[in-house]
């Protein structure tokens, strides 16, 4: 069997990221607008790449097929490990929940069925790739990324040709700076790079931490490129004040595309953007599903057999499906909640694991994240501050853009 390509792993990482970011960042970044959104997203990409590498460094001390849970259970106290497990499952579950709810809105009109039935069909079809194998997810991820790139290029080329520079860099008459809004954007940006439940999957896939490192960096770089181009084109076409109805509607992709395409005459651009949004939802659902699937298989000790994989499939996909049918709510709200919880397992815990294992095994061999203790401390600080910013925004200490 040929060795898996770096591109395949990068596409898995990018597909995990891109759905959440593409669907949530424009609405969440409307307050911060162009400059501060670009800064917040770029800084988050750097921090989240480093935190993923720190987790990869921690995993090198364990056998292949060991997950985040295996390392945390060995290194951390039971109480801290319980919090880590809870936050990891919460984030993965709420992301799956958000994608399933969004799929119902997107596909119900296309299929002519209720949103509930559309969600059930979406889960049944897309989760089948995860149930089959990581290789199947690799293959479908590449196809979906290609669809996203083509439809993205077609849609964005049309949007880019209509960018209004004054709109892109507009300044409010009543606000002197948008910088404070960037702080509230960070939890959504963090979620947009929340691939960490797939780090152990990448290590197992390549059987080599250095190759997994390259795939992670390539995947987050692909995601960052998509995000920046997307946000700039959206903000250059849709005035800041026009985001009010989108935010009120929960910030979902359907509301965003509706507001965006109202000012676009080209049918081809509208169709390209719709195809892109569908590919983004599907690819991110499958990518997140794979990470949660592997994590729960290790957590519950399910074997890699047909019956074991069916059990893992059930605990991975059925709870978020049921909750999405019972109580769907705003997409950006869900992503923000996921971001607040993700600071624990996507920033703080990976850095703590790497620090503890460096102390346990002073003579480090193999893959080591550069920067020494400074990298660890910066990643932890970023996670703590991002969680704090989300809480401050919830209690209206930080400004929250309402339109």
UniProtKB/TrEMBL annotation:
GO terms for cellular component: plasma membrane. The keyword Transport applies. It holds the Pfam family Trp_Tyr_perm. It comes from the Bacteria. Keywords: Amino-acid transport, Cell inner membrane, Cell membrane, Membrane, Transmembrane, Transmembrane helix, Transport. It is found in: Cell inner membrane. GO terms for molecular function: aromatic amino acid transmembrane transporter activity. The keyword ATP-binding does not apply. It is a multi-pass membrane protein. One of its GO terms (biological process) is amino acid transmembrane transport. The chain crosses the membrane at residues 7-27, 33-56, 82-100, 106-131, 143-165, 177-195, 215-237, 243-260, 272-293, 325-353, 374-398. Belongs to the amino acid/polyamine transporter 2 family. Mtr/TnaB/TyrP permease subfamily. Involved in transporting aromatic amino acids across the cytoplasmic membrane. This is Aromatic amino acid permease.
């Amino acid at each position: 069997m040929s060795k898996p390509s770096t591109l395949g792993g990068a596409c898995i990482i990018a597909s995990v990221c891109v759905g959440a970011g593409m669907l949530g960042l424009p609405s969440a970044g409307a307050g911060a607008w162009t400059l501060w959104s670009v800064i917040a997203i770029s800084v988050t990409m750097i921090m989240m790449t480093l935190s993923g590498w720190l987790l990869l460094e921690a995993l090198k001390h364990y056998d292949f097929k060991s997950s985040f849970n295996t390392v945390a259970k060995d290194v951390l106290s039971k109480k801290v490990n319980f919090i880590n497990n809870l936050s990891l499952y919460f984030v993965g579950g709420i992301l799956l929940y958000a994608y399933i709810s969004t799929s119902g809105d997107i596909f119900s009109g296309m299929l002519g069925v209720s949103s509930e039935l559309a969600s059930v069909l979406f889960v049944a079809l897309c989760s089948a790739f995860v149930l089959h194998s990581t290789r199947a997810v690799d293959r479908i991820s590449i196809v979906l990324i290609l669809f996203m790139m083509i439809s993205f290029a077609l849609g964005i080329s049309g949007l880019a040709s209509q960018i209004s520079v004054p709109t892109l860099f507009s300044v409010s008459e009543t606000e002197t700076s948008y910088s404070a809004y960037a702080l509230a954007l960070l939890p959504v940006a963090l979620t947009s790079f929340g691939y960490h439940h797939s780090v152990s999957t990448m290590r197992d896939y390549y059987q080599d931490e250095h190759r997994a490192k390259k795939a992670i960096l390539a995947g987050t770089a692909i995601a960052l490129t998509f995000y920046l181009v997307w946000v700039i084109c959206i903000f250059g076409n849709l005035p800041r004040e026009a985001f009010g109805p989108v935010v009120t509607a929960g910030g979902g992709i359907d509301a965003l595309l509706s507001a965006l395409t109202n000012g676009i005459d080209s049918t081809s651009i509208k169709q390209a953007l719709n195809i892109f949004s569908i590919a983004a939802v599907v690819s991110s659902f499958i990518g997140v599903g794979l990470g949660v699937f592997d994590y729960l298989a290790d957590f519950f000790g399910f074997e890699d057999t047909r019956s074991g994989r069916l059990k893992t499939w059930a605990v991975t996909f059925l709870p978020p499906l049921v909750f999405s049918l019972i109580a769907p709510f705003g997409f950006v709200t869900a992503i923000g909640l996921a971001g607040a919880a993700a600071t624990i397992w996507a920033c703080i815990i990976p850095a703590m694991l790497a620090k503890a294992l460096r102390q346990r095994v002073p003579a480090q061999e193999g893959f080591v994240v550069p920067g020494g203790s400074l990298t660890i401390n910066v990643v932890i600080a970023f996670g703590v501050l991002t969680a704090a910013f989300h809480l401050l925004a919830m209690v209206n200490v930080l400004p929250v853009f309402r339109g």
